[in-house]
Amino acid sequence: MIGTTVDAETTGLADLDRELSALENRLLGEELMREAMMEAAGPLVALARAKAKRLTGAIADSIRAGHPRHDVSARRAKTLPKGTLVVVGASSPAARFLERGTFRQAPQPFLRPAVEQDRDALKARFAAALRRRLATL
What is the pTM of this model? Predict the structure, then answer.
């Protein structure tokens, strides 16, 4: 009978296990951060919607929070730093003209003032949301 024998020695399984565990922890950490950021961003979205000029309500309705990987409107962010990121913005094309103005229309900012007004509360909400999520682990 003709056969083939293969002898194999497995090494480095402990290293692989450590790497997989670190990856799992990193992914879990990113998910916890993203969830906490999304929770903290909710009141900021509401504040920006309240500050947006309403003719039809389309701009205010287009304001949302999202992650660039998961939300199409958040993919417009030009610079994406490494790490967990949540973008609050408006997906309506007219929003940037309202926020920044044009050569014929004065700016009527709504997003920047909302961020400036909510900055400290946003940090506090994020810290509280993250603490709650970490307590459940």
Answer: 0.73
Identify the domain containing residue 124 by its residue range.
13-135
pLDDT, averaged in runs of 10, over the chain (137 residues): 46 66 70 88 94 88 81 53 76 90 92 93 90 83
Q: 33 in a domain, yes or no?
A: yes
Question: What is the distance between the alpha carbons of residues 119 and 58, in angstroms, rounded to a whole number?
Answer: 25
Q: 84, 48, 46: which is closest to 68 by C-alpha?
A: 84
Task: Give every CB contact of residue 102 below 8 A, 6+ residues apart in sequence.
Answer: none
At 111, give phi and psi (nearest 5°): -80, -50
Tell me, yes or no, whether 61 lies in a domain.
yes
pLDDT one-digit tens code per residue, 6-25: 444 545 667 766 666 666 67
Tokens of 13: 């399984």
Residue that has been written with the tokens 């949301």 in this structure: 129
